[in-house]
Amino acid sequence: MKLINKYKIIIYLGLTVVTGLLSCSQQPKKEEQPESTEKVRSKTETGITLTKNQLNAVGIRFGTIEQKNLKSVVKASGQLEVPPQNRAEVTLLMGGVVNQVFVLEGQHVNKGQKLASIENNQLIQLQQDYMSAEAGLAYATKEYERQKELNAANAGVGKVFQQSESAYRSEQAKVAALARQLQQVGINPANATKGRFITQIPVFAPISGIIGKIDIQTGSYAEPARSLMNIVDNSKVHCDLVVYEKDLFKVKPGQLVNFILTNQNNREITGKIYGVNQSFENDSKAIIAHAVIEQSAKNNLIQGMYVSALINIGKQDVAAVPTDAVVKSGGKEYIYYLKKTQGETFAFDQAEVVSGAADLGYTEVKLVTSLPKDIKIVTKGAYYILSSQNATGDED
Question: pTM of the prediction?
Answer without folding.
Answer: 0.56
